[in-house]
LysR family transcriptional regulator
Amino acid sequence: MNLYHLRYFVTLAHLEHYTKAAQVLSITQPSLSHAIASLEEELGIRLFEKDGRNIVLTKYGQAFLLDVEHALSLLDSSINRLQLTAKGEGNIDIAFLRTLGTSLIPNFIRGFSNLYPDKNIHFSLHTDTGLSADILDGIKTKKYDVAFCSFLENEPLIEFTPIAKQEIVLAVPKDHPLASKDSIHLEETLQYPHIMFKPKSGLRLVVDNLFKQLKQYPDTIAYEVEEDQVAAGLVSQGFGIAVIPYMNILSMMDLKLIQISSPTWERKFYMATLKNTYQPPAIQNFCEYVKSKSVENLRL
Protein backbone atom coordinates (compact mmCIF):
# COMPACT_ATOMS: atom_id res chain seq x y z
CA MET A 1 0.00 0.00 0.00
CA ASN A 2 1.41 3.36 -1.06
CA LEU A 3 2.18 5.60 1.91
CA TYR A 4 1.59 8.72 -0.17
CA HIS A 5 -1.89 7.46 -1.03
CA LEU A 6 -2.69 7.21 2.67
CA ARG A 7 -1.56 10.78 3.25
CA TYR A 8 -3.62 11.91 0.24
CA PHE A 9 -6.62 10.08 1.70
CA VAL A 10 -6.31 11.89 5.06
CA THR A 11 -6.05 15.32 3.42
CA LEU A 12 -9.04 14.68 1.16
CA ALA A 13 -11.07 13.32 4.08
CA HIS A 14 -10.60 16.58 5.98
CA LEU A 15 -11.13 18.98 3.06
CA GLU A 16 -13.91 16.96 1.33
CA HIS A 17 -13.06 18.55 -2.01
CA TYR A 18 -10.76 17.17 -4.71
CA THR A 19 -9.61 20.51 -6.10
CA LYS A 20 -8.79 22.00 -2.68
CA ALA A 21 -7.04 18.84 -1.55
CA ALA A 22 -4.96 18.66 -4.72
CA GLN A 23 -3.84 22.27 -4.22
CA VAL A 24 -2.81 21.60 -0.63
CA LEU A 25 -0.94 18.46 -1.69
CA SER A 26 0.70 20.24 -4.66
CA ILE A 27 -0.44 17.57 -7.10
CA THR A 28 -2.92 17.58 -9.98
CA GLN A 29 -6.54 16.68 -9.40
CA PRO A 30 -6.35 13.68 -11.80
CA SER A 31 -3.35 12.38 -9.84
CA LEU A 32 -5.31 12.64 -6.59
CA SER A 33 -8.37 10.99 -8.15
CA HIS A 34 -6.21 8.14 -9.46
CA ALA A 35 -4.53 7.68 -6.04
CA ILE A 36 -7.87 7.44 -4.21
CA ALA A 37 -9.30 5.11 -6.85
CA SER A 38 -6.25 2.86 -6.53
CA LEU A 39 -6.60 2.83 -2.76
CA GLU A 40 -10.29 1.92 -2.94
CA GLU A 41 -9.57 -0.79 -5.49
CA GLU A 42 -6.87 -2.30 -3.27
CA LEU A 43 -9.14 -2.23 -0.23
CA GLY A 44 -12.15 -3.43 -2.20
CA ILE A 45 -14.48 -0.87 -0.66
CA ARG A 46 -15.64 2.71 -1.26
CA LEU A 47 -14.12 5.32 1.04
CA PHE A 48 -15.90 8.40 -0.33
CA GLU A 49 -19.29 9.24 -1.77
CA LYS A 50 -20.63 12.39 -3.42
CA ASP A 51 -22.47 15.04 -1.44
CA GLY A 52 -23.47 17.73 -3.91
CA ARG A 53 -20.29 19.31 -5.27
CA ASN A 54 -18.29 17.94 -2.39
CA ILE A 55 -17.50 14.43 -1.23
CA VAL A 56 -17.86 12.85 2.21
CA LEU A 57 -16.49 9.75 3.83
CA THR A 58 -18.55 6.62 3.81
CA LYS A 59 -19.12 4.77 7.07
CA TYR A 60 -16.14 2.58 6.23
CA GLY A 61 -14.03 5.56 5.23
CA GLN A 62 -14.66 7.16 8.64
CA ALA A 63 -13.44 4.06 10.45
CA PHE A 64 -10.43 3.79 8.13
CA LEU A 65 -9.54 7.45 8.70
CA LEU A 66 -9.17 6.92 12.46
CA ASP A 67 -6.82 4.00 11.96
CA VAL A 68 -4.77 5.69 9.23
CA GLU A 69 -4.31 8.88 11.25
CA HIS A 70 -3.20 6.84 14.26
CA ALA A 71 -0.76 4.79 12.17
CA LEU A 72 0.68 7.86 10.43
CA SER A 73 1.07 9.64 13.76
CA LEU A 74 3.06 6.71 15.15
CA LEU A 75 5.17 6.53 12.00
CA ASP A 76 5.88 10.27 11.96
CA SER A 77 6.78 10.20 15.64
CA SER A 78 9.17 7.30 15.10
CA ILE A 79 10.77 9.00 12.10
CA ASN A 80 11.23 12.19 14.11
CA ARG A 81 12.90 10.29 16.96
CA LEU A 82 15.27 8.54 14.58
CA GLN A 83 16.17 11.79 12.84
CA LEU A 84 16.92 13.41 16.21
CA THR A 85 19.00 10.37 17.18
CA ALA A 86 20.99 10.66 13.96
CA LYS A 87 21.74 14.28 14.87
CA GLY A 88 23.25 13.31 18.22
CA GLU A 89 20.11 13.67 20.31
CA GLY A 90 17.69 11.21 21.88
CA ASN A 91 17.67 8.84 24.84
CA ILE A 92 20.57 7.00 26.51
CA ASP A 93 19.76 4.08 28.80
CA ILE A 94 22.36 3.79 31.56
CA ALA A 95 22.53 1.03 34.18
CA PHE A 96 24.88 1.32 37.14
CA LEU A 97 25.65 0.00 40.60
CA ARG A 98 23.91 2.13 43.23
CA THR A 99 27.18 3.02 44.93
CA LEU A 100 28.11 4.95 41.78
CA GLY A 101 24.92 6.98 41.85
CA THR A 102 25.93 9.39 44.60
CA SER A 103 28.57 11.26 42.65
CA LEU A 104 30.25 9.50 39.71
CA ILE A 105 27.27 8.99 37.39
CA PRO A 106 25.73 12.42 38.12
CA ASN A 107 29.13 13.99 37.43
CA PHE A 108 29.40 12.19 34.09
CA ILE A 109 25.90 13.26 33.09
CA ARG A 110 26.41 16.87 34.14
CA GLY A 111 29.80 17.16 32.44
CA PHE A 112 28.52 15.61 29.21
CA SER A 113 25.36 17.75 29.21
CA ASN A 114 27.48 20.88 29.63
CA LEU A 115 29.40 19.93 26.48
CA TYR A 116 26.21 19.75 24.44
CA PRO A 117 23.84 22.37 25.88
CA ASP A 118 21.93 22.70 22.60
CA LYS A 119 21.29 18.97 22.20
CA ASN A 120 18.09 17.36 23.43
CA ILE A 121 19.61 14.37 25.22
CA HIS A 122 17.73 12.45 27.90
CA PHE A 123 19.26 9.89 30.24
CA SER A 124 17.16 6.98 31.48
CA LEU A 125 18.81 5.70 34.66
CA HIS A 126 18.47 2.09 35.81
CA THR A 127 19.46 0.80 39.26
CA ASP A 128 16.94 -2.04 39.45
CA THR A 129 19.67 -4.60 40.12
CA GLY A 130 22.59 -4.61 42.50
CA LEU A 131 24.57 -7.25 40.62
CA SER A 132 27.08 -6.64 37.85
CA ALA A 133 26.12 -9.94 36.19
CA ASP A 134 22.50 -8.83 35.84
CA ILE A 135 23.56 -5.42 34.53
CA LEU A 136 25.73 -7.07 31.89
CA ASP A 137 22.83 -9.31 30.87
CA GLY A 138 20.91 -6.11 30.21
CA ILE A 139 23.73 -4.86 28.00
CA LYS A 140 23.79 -8.11 26.01
CA THR A 141 20.01 -8.02 25.48
CA LYS A 142 20.28 -4.31 24.52
CA LYS A 143 18.04 -3.24 27.38
CA TYR A 144 20.80 -0.79 28.35
CA ASP A 145 23.09 1.21 26.09
CA VAL A 146 25.89 1.76 28.62
CA ALA A 147 26.59 0.21 32.02
CA PHE A 148 28.86 1.05 34.93
CA CYS A 149 29.74 -1.97 37.03
CA SER A 150 32.50 -4.34 38.08
CA PHE A 151 34.60 -6.35 35.65
CA LEU A 152 33.51 -9.95 35.17
CA GLU A 153 35.57 -12.63 33.48
CA ASN A 154 34.36 -14.72 30.53
CA GLU A 155 32.37 -11.90 28.93
CA PRO A 156 33.70 -11.88 25.35
CA LEU A 157 30.82 -9.76 24.03
CA ILE A 158 31.47 -6.90 26.45
CA GLU A 159 34.05 -4.11 26.15
CA PHE A 160 35.22 -3.00 29.59
CA THR A 161 36.80 0.42 30.09
CA PRO A 162 38.17 1.28 33.59
CA ILE A 163 36.66 4.56 34.79
CA ALA A 164 37.14 4.70 38.57
CA LYS A 165 38.70 2.91 41.50
CA GLN A 166 37.83 2.47 45.13
CA GLU A 167 39.86 1.43 48.18
CA ILE A 168 38.88 -1.73 50.04
CA VAL A 169 38.58 -1.43 53.83
CA LEU A 170 37.46 -3.54 56.76
CA ALA A 171 34.27 -2.45 58.49
CA VAL A 172 33.68 -3.59 62.08
CA PRO A 173 31.20 -2.60 64.79
CA LYS A 174 32.52 0.11 67.09
CA ASP A 175 32.54 -2.27 70.08
CA HIS A 176 34.30 -5.08 68.19
CA PRO A 177 37.65 -6.48 69.48
CA LEU A 178 39.32 -5.20 66.29
CA ALA A 179 37.86 -1.68 66.59
CA SER A 180 40.96 -0.38 68.39
CA LYS A 181 43.08 -0.94 65.27
CA ASP A 182 43.64 1.59 62.49
CA SER A 183 45.39 -0.89 60.21
CA ILE A 184 45.09 -4.64 59.99
CA HIS A 185 46.37 -7.72 58.20
CA LEU A 186 43.41 -9.61 56.73
CA GLU A 187 44.60 -12.83 58.38
CA GLU A 188 43.61 -11.31 61.74
CA THR A 189 39.94 -11.31 60.68
CA LEU A 190 39.55 -15.01 59.85
CA GLN A 191 38.21 -16.06 63.26
CA TYR A 192 35.33 -13.57 63.17
CA PRO A 193 31.98 -13.96 61.33
CA HIS A 194 32.03 -12.16 57.98
CA ILE A 195 29.34 -10.48 55.93
CA MET A 196 30.11 -11.55 52.35
CA PHE A 197 28.75 -10.62 48.96
CA LYS A 198 26.73 -13.08 46.92
CA PRO A 199 28.65 -15.16 44.37
CA LYS A 200 27.19 -13.28 41.37
CA SER A 201 28.42 -9.96 42.73
CA GLY A 202 31.55 -8.47 41.19
CA LEU A 203 32.65 -7.60 44.72
CA ARG A 204 32.63 -11.26 45.73
CA LEU A 205 35.40 -11.92 43.21
CA VAL A 206 37.44 -9.06 44.67
CA VAL A 207 37.07 -10.24 48.26
CA ASP A 208 37.66 -13.90 47.37
CA ASN A 209 40.88 -12.93 45.62
CA LEU A 210 42.10 -11.26 48.80
CA PHE A 211 41.58 -14.42 50.81
CA LYS A 212 43.09 -16.55 48.06
CA GLN A 213 46.30 -14.63 48.56
CA LEU A 214 46.22 -15.75 52.21
CA LYS A 215 45.33 -19.30 51.16
CA GLN A 216 42.77 -19.15 53.96
CA TYR A 217 39.09 -18.24 54.24
CA PRO A 218 36.95 -16.92 57.13
CA ASP A 219 35.69 -19.59 59.49
CA THR A 220 32.11 -18.29 59.44
CA ILE A 221 29.98 -16.52 56.83
CA ALA A 222 27.16 -14.82 58.72
CA TYR A 223 25.28 -13.41 55.71
CA GLU A 224 25.62 -13.05 51.96
CA VAL A 225 24.26 -9.82 50.46
CA GLU A 226 24.13 -8.11 47.08
CA GLU A 227 25.07 -4.53 47.94
CA ASP A 228 27.85 -2.88 49.92
CA GLN A 229 25.44 -0.53 51.73
CA VAL A 230 23.52 -3.54 53.06
CA ALA A 231 26.75 -5.17 54.22
CA ALA A 232 27.71 -1.98 56.07
CA GLY A 233 24.27 -1.83 57.69
CA LEU A 234 24.58 -5.39 59.00
CA VAL A 235 28.05 -4.62 60.36
CA SER A 236 26.77 -1.55 62.19
CA GLN A 237 24.20 -3.75 63.95
CA GLY A 238 26.81 -6.25 65.09
CA PHE A 239 26.05 -9.15 62.72
CA GLY A 240 29.66 -9.51 61.64
CA ILE A 241 32.54 -7.73 59.96
CA ALA A 242 32.93 -7.03 56.24
CA VAL A 243 35.58 -6.32 53.64
CA ILE A 244 33.87 -3.58 51.63
CA PRO A 245 34.77 -0.71 49.31
CA TYR A 246 35.15 2.69 50.93
CA MET A 247 32.21 5.07 50.43
CA ASN A 248 31.61 8.50 51.91
CA ILE A 249 28.35 7.28 53.43
CA LEU A 250 30.30 4.87 55.67
CA SER A 251 31.66 7.77 57.71
CA MET A 252 28.10 8.57 58.80
CA MET A 253 27.32 5.03 59.97
CA ASP A 254 27.84 3.51 63.41
CA LEU A 255 30.92 1.42 62.57
CA LYS A 256 34.72 1.55 62.51
CA LEU A 257 36.69 1.51 59.25
CA ILE A 258 40.12 -0.09 59.32
CA GLN A 259 42.75 0.12 56.60
CA ILE A 260 43.82 -3.27 55.24
CA SER A 261 47.62 -3.28 55.17
CA SER A 262 47.94 -6.70 53.54
CA PRO A 263 46.97 -8.05 51.15
CA THR A 264 46.08 -4.83 49.34
CA TRP A 265 43.54 -4.43 46.60
CA GLU A 266 41.67 -1.68 44.82
CA ARG A 267 38.20 -2.21 43.47
CA LYS A 268 37.89 -0.90 39.93
CA PHE A 269 34.71 0.17 38.19
CA TYR A 270 34.24 -0.15 34.45
CA MET A 271 32.12 1.26 31.70
CA ALA A 272 30.63 -1.70 29.84
CA THR A 273 29.33 -1.61 26.27
CA LEU A 274 28.45 -4.23 23.71
CA LYS A 275 31.18 -4.99 21.18
CA ASN A 276 30.60 -4.81 17.43
CA THR A 277 27.20 -3.15 17.64
CA TYR A 278 25.94 0.11 16.17
CA GLN A 279 25.73 3.02 18.59
CA PRO A 280 24.07 6.28 17.50
CA PRO A 281 26.04 9.55 17.83
CA ALA A 282 24.72 10.54 21.28
CA ILE A 283 25.83 7.25 22.83
CA GLN A 284 29.16 7.29 20.98
CA ASN A 285 29.83 10.83 22.20
CA PHE A 286 28.90 9.97 25.77
CA CYS A 287 31.20 6.93 25.81
CA GLU A 288 34.06 8.98 24.39
CA TYR A 289 33.49 11.63 27.04
CA VAL A 290 33.66 9.04 29.82
CA LYS A 291 36.83 7.53 28.34
CA SER A 292 38.44 10.97 28.27
CA LYS A 293 38.28 11.15 32.06
CA SER A 294 41.50 9.90 33.65
CA VAL A 295 41.01 7.02 36.06
CA GLU A 296 43.58 8.58 38.40
CA ASN A 297 41.28 11.57 38.83
CA LEU A 298 38.20 9.48 39.50
CA ARG A 299 38.94 7.93 42.86
CA LEU A 300 35.69 7.50 44.76
Summary: The chain has a mean pLDDT of 90.
